[in-house]
Request: fold
Amino acid sequence: MKLTSIIAIYGLFWVMSAFLVLPFGVRTHDEMGQGKIAGQADSAPANFVPRRIVLRATVLAAVLFGLFYANYFNGWITVADLDLTTYLSH
Reply:
């Protein structure tokens, strides 16, 4: 696998991971007992920390990419394994 492919695939895993970890640990102002600014949405986070999101997404993406690369190298799950037409035709 080329380095550019590794970087691109890891980037995809990172973006997916960022969206997966984004809602964990976030609390609203009501849940934390803080006052809201006029016009603020009720669902706006009170404790949003981007550094924590980046760290969590990086770790999760590294784990997922590690599994992807191990599968690519060892061939545990191939395209033929994902072909559902062979299972549906019998």
Notes: The chain has four helices and no strands. The helical segments are 3-21, 29-32, 50-74, 85-88. The chain has a mean pLDDT of 93. The radius of gyration is 20 Å.
